[in-house]
Amino acid sequence: MFKILIADDEWMIREGLKHTIDWEALNCVLVGEAADGEQAVQQIQAHQPDILISDIRMPGMNGLQLAWSAQEFCPELKVIFLTGFDDFVYAQQAIKLKASDFVLKPTDPDTLVKAIDKVCKDLVRTRQHASVMEQLQSWKRDRESLVVQKLIHDSMLGITDTTSLEMLKEWLDETAGAQKIRVVVVQMEEDGEERRQHLKERLYTRIYGPLIMIDELQRACIIPAEEEAVDMLKEIVTGFGKAPVYVGVSLSYGGLEQLDRAYREALEVVRHRAAGKQSGVSVYGDIEHLDDAAVHFSEGFRQVEAYVQHHFNEDISLQQLAARFHLSEAHFSRLFRKRLGVSFIEYLTRLRMEQAKRLLGDENVRIYEVSLAVGYQDSRYFSQIFRKYTGETPTEYRKRMMVSHGM
After folding, report:
1. Running DSSP on this structure, what letter comes out for residue 250?
2. Is 195:230 a contact under the CB 8 Å cutoff?
3. What is the three-class DSSP state of 186?
4. pLDDT at residue 201 above 70?
5. pLDDT of residue 293
6. Which residue among 62, 175, 211, 239 is buried most deeply as judged by most CB within 10 Å?
C-alpha cells in the first residue's frame, strides 16, 4: 500500500481528510499528520511516505519549503498541494517544483480522491518500469541467465513471440548497445566439459550472449558484426588444439528479427565444413563448392518461407511445395531440414501454434475459430496438437494468459 502523510495547519481539514476518504479503497494508508512544515519534515524522515498532501500556506515553513526540504532525503516523494484561488504565485513555484497535482480549497473529497488515484497509478507505472530495469541489470550481470538463453534459443529457431523479442532487444541494448550482429555456430567432435568450458572462456569477452546448446556437439552464440570479431574468432579456433572444430558465421544483420535466418546461415556453413572434415572458421557466402541444388534452394528459400507463412492456415503439404519448387519430395524434404534444422511438418506446426497462441490472447475469439484460423478443421485435433506443443490445452493456456495479464 502507498503511504500518505498530511500536512496542514488547520486541524479541521486534517480531520476531514482522515475520515471522509476511503484510504483503503485507494490502496493507501495514512502514516502521519503534521500541523506545520517542521513537524512534517520529522514525519517524512520517520515514515518515508510515498505521497505528501500539503497545504501551500502554513506558518513558519510553508508547503513549498517543505517539499524542497523533503526532496533531499525522500527524492521519490510525490506532492499534492492544497491551494486557494489567491495562491497563484505559490502555484507557479509549485509547478517548477514538479508538483504532482493541485487541489483547490475548500477541498472537495471527490477531486482529491481523483488526484490521489492518478498519483498512485503513476507510482505503479514507475515501480513497474524500475522493476523491469532492475531485471535487465540482473541479466546484464548474469550473462549465463537461463532466461536469456531461452530467449536467444527461441529467436534463433524462429519460435519467439513479440514480447520475448522486445525483452531480448532490451537486454542486448543494455548489454552491448549492438547495432549489427552475427550468429556463430560451433561444432566440436570432442565436446567434453573441459573443452566446452575452455571455448566459453575464450569467447566470453567478445560474445553478447551465452553459448547456447543446440545439440550434443553444437553450440551457438551472438558476436559483433565487425570483421575484427570474426578475425578474433579465427585466432581462437586456430589455437584451440588438435581436435577438429567447425565454426560457421552468418552474414551481418541489423536486428534480432532476422536472428533465425542468421542462425540457419551459420548452421549451413558448419554442416558444410563438418561434411568435408575442414576444421576452422568460414563466413556464409564465402564457401565454395556447395552442391548446386543446395545453392539454388538457399537463394530461393525466402520464397518458400514467404509462401508457407502466408498459407500456413491452408491445407498445404510437402508434396505440393516440392512440386512448386521443381524438386522431388524426398530431395525437397532433405534440403528443407538441412536449411531449417527441422522437418517441414515441424516447421508448419510451429507457425500454426505460435499464431494460435496470439489468437488465444483475445478472449472474444472462440477455440474452434482459432482452430480454423490456423488450418485445422477439427478443433479436437487442434487441441491435441496444441497441448503436445505447449503442454497445455488451448483453454488452459488462455486462462493462464488472462491471469498473467490481470484480466
Report:
1. P
2. no
3. strand
4. no
5. 44
6. 211
Query: Strands of 181-188's sheet, edge to edge?
Result: 212-213, 218-224, 181-188, 245-249, 280-283
Mind listing the pLDDT tens digit for each residue in 327-368?
Answer: 667 777 877 887 777 888 988 999 899 999 989 988 888 999
Residues 127-150 pLDDT 10s: 887 777 776 666 555 554 677 777
φ, ψ for residue 298 (rounded to 5)? -65, -40
Look up cell 498459407; give the residue. Answer: 311
How far from 355 is each of 318, 341, 347, CA to CA, in Å? 20, 21, 13
As given in the structure block, the three cell numbers for residue 306 are 514467404
At 376, the amino acid letter reads Y
Q: CA–CA separation, 350 vs 356, rounded Å?
A: 10
Instruction: Give the CA dihedral 81, 82, 88, 93, nearest 10 degrees.
Output: -20
DSSP characters for 141-155?
H-TT-HHHHHHHHHH
* Residue 180, all three cell numbers: 549489427
pLDDT of residue 235 exceeding 90, the answer is: no
Q: What is the residue type of 338?
A: K
Q: At what angle do helices 162-176 and 109-141 cross, to 10 degrees?
A: 70
Pairing between strand 28-34 and 280-283? unpaired
The pTM assigned to this predicted structure is: 0.39
Residue 319's SS3 state is helix
Give CA–CA dist 406/392, Å, rounded.
19
- In this structure, the dihedral spanned by the alpha carbons of residues 146, 148, 149 and 150, taken in order and rounded to 10 degrees, is 90
- Give residue 78's identity as a one-letter amino acid code: K
Q: How many CB atoms lie within 10 A of CB 291?
A: 10
- Report how far residue 45's alpha carbon sits from residue 33's, in angstroms, rounded to the nearest whole number: 13
Q: Is the dihedral of CA 385, 390, 391, 393 positive or negative?
A: negative
Contact, 102 vs 64, CB < 8 A? no
Percent of the chain at pLDDT above 90? 15
Which helix (H) or strand (E) element contains residue 326? none
Residue range 183-208: mean pLDDT, rounded: 66
